[in-house]
Design goal:
420 residues; 19 strands; elongated; disordered N terminus
């Protein structure tokens, strides 16, 4: 037996000397390829070969147990619990997300908040971060690291257990909490959609069709109307739809209206912009041409404004003078208040002119007061009012009979070819 042992020692020494003599190339040929050794064979952790080692959910909960907020409440005799959350917008691949709450306060139905806080535990580093549910997370707001001596001791133990070295900690520590990071510079970006629908109707042009959530860009362009003084005009209302680049962060408009009046004088061959109602006026706005005045020197338009994603519209009027380019916009609410009383509302529409050049409006009771914030209608029946042209339309000249019919003074020529 002693001779056999000495023989094994001798063979081992010869092998060692051979490796030393022939260098690393021969030695390497006897080494088992490291690439075939899985990390789970070394550390005992089953994991994807392409991922860093990860701590378990149970170990993450051990870290949550050591949080100062958790320990403080338990020291006061409170029962603290948590829910593990998988949030669709968050980076669940690299983090465990916890909502911690005061179970004692919940049981006692405390009127205050039972929430203790939201915390995220990095699966690859054992780091613990405070986080908040808000749109800011899409910009990469990854919360503050929680550091205590107890936490650091347990984190080091977990990293050692799972073979998480300093290089892996450095690599994964900066992982974002959000699943997708949207830079602030493009968070509100949106694409303007091209016009896909056209109409000759310019009243209340919107990006939405009734009963549909799908938005498209629309253009309303009225026929040309001529005055007996030789002026020609048409209105154009463009409702531009927006497609947000990032639905998660976009808070801008989905539809923007611009209403414009185009005018050509007696000697003009081309139409030029003469008046515009931009999106600053309201979310939605429109201009509808009603008629030219009897002398052909004033154009009457009905103006409507509304807020998108809400109910209700407001209609008043604009009187445009092509010779001066000026507009007259009476305070219709104040005028009607003087006639019907305060704190009441009505449905308004612009009818046309009287032979004297006064502007005729139709005032009717509200059909539905629910969407008008509880306003009551003081108008009991349909009423035709003539606004006094001699007083800049700031007063009522007369109440017209119910069978009054406004005469048309403007002229519509033969149907026009489409204008680019």
């Amino acid at each position: 037996m002693a001779r056999f042992v000495r023989f094994l020692i001798l063979v081992s020494l010869c092998s060692l000397l051979t490796n030393l003599a022939f260098g690393d190339e021969l030695a390497a040929s006897f080494v088992f390829p490291l690439s075939l050794i899985r990390a789970s064979d070394v550390t005992g952790v089953n994991r994807d070969e392409n991922l860093s080692p990860t701590i378990t959910i149970s170990e993450a909960e051990d870290l949550i147990n050591l949080l100062p907020a958790t320990k403080e409440l338990r020291a006061k005799g409170m029962d603290v619990k948590w829910d593990v959350q998988a949030l669709p917008t968050m980076n669940n691949r690299d983090y465990y997300f916890f909502w911690i709450y005061n179970a004692t306060a919940q049981k006692e139905r405390d009127i205050g908040s039972i929430s203790v806080g939201n915390y995220a535990v990095n699966k690859h580093t054992a780091d613990v971060r405070i986080w908040h549910v808000s749109e800011e997370v899409f910009y990469g707001d990854d919360g503050a690291l929680v550091n205590t001596n107890e936490l650091e001791r347990l984190q080091e133990e977990l990293r050692k257990k799972h073979g998480i070295n300093s290089a892996l900690v450095q690599q994964y520590r900066s992982g974002h909490l959000a699943d997708k990071i949207i830079p602030r510079a493009v968070a509100q970006s949106a694409v303007r959609l091209p016009i896909t629908e056209r109409s000759i109707d310019t009243s209340e042009v919107s990006c939405w069709k009734k009963g549909s959530d799908h938005v498209i860009s629309r253009l309303g362009r009225s026929p040309i109307i001529s005055s007996n003084a030789g002026y020609r005009a048409y209105a154009e209302v463009k409702a531009t739809a927006f497609r947000p680049k990032y639905q998660e962060t976009y808070t801008g408009p989905l539809c923007e209206n611009i209403s414009r009046l185009f005018l050509a004088g007696p000697a003009d061959a081309e139409f030029k912009p003469a008046y515009s109602q931009s999106a600053d006026f309201s979310d939605g706005n429109s201009l509808k041409i009603i008629d030219w005045s009897p002398d052909g020197m004033h154009l009457l338009m009905e103006r409507t404004s509304w807020k998108y994603e809400s109910e209700g519209t407001y209609t008043d009027l604009v009187l445009f003078s092509p010779s001066s380019g000026g507009v007259t916009v009476p305070d219709l609410s104040k005028i009607l208040e003087g006639r019907f009383g305060k704190d009441c509302d009505s449905e308004n529409s612009v009818i046309g002119f009287t032979p004297e050049g006064n502007v005729v409006i139709l005032v009717t009771p509200l059909e539905d007061t629910y969407y008008n914030e509880g306003a009551t209608s003081c108008v009991k029946q349909k009423t035709l009012l003539a606004l006094d042209a001699k007083r800049a339309l700031q007063d009522i000249a007369e109440v017209l009979p119910g069978d009054f019919k406004a005469r048309r003074y403007g002229q519509f020529p033969e149907p026009q070819a489409s204008r680019k």
